[in-house]
Design goal:
This protein has about 110 residues and is an alpha+beta fold. It has helices at about 15-25, 30-35, 45-70, 85-100, and strands spanning about 1-5, 15, 40, 105-110. The chain has a four-stranded antiparallel beta sheet with strand order 2-1-4-3. Helix 3 (about 45-70) runs antiparallel to helix 4. The longest helix is centred in the middle third of the chain and has 28 residues, at about 45-70. The two termini are about 15 Å apart.
């Protein structure tokens, strides 16, 4: 499945299922019906953006702790993920910010 996020304020944003579901769960859209299709209203954009920034910060803190723990033990740090949450979420964050500024919603699955 592919997620296609649409808005009148931006171009469409397409994500693979795993990435789209991850973003939706972070912003609080975790019910199966919300994953299939839904709407993010303009008034919900700021909390969604904040939730994504918090998730990115948590992932980066966790990664730094893992690397530090490995170095403390004299071991090589495990490889970093090929693509971080920061990179995966940035297009959605930018879309949400533009939609917030324009007071337009984002829809998917329609």
């Amino acid at each position: 499945m592919i997620y296609k996020f649409k808005s009148k304020a931006t171009g469409d944003l397409i994500m693979l299922q795993l990435n789209g579901e991850s973003i939706l769960k972070i912003i609080g859209k975790s019910e199966p019906s919300q994953l299939k299709q839904g709407i993010l209203l303009a008034q919900d954009m700021a909390p969604a953006i904040a939730a994504l920034h918090a998730a990115v910060a948590l992932e980066e803190r966790t990664r730094a702790e893992v690397v530090q723990a490995a170095h403390d033990k004299g071991q090589a740090a495990p490889p970093a993920p090929a693509v971080s949450l920061r990179q995966r979420s940035l297009p959605f964050i930018q879309m949400a910010q533009r939609c917030l500024d324009a007071k337009k919603e984002i829809v998917w699955g329609v």
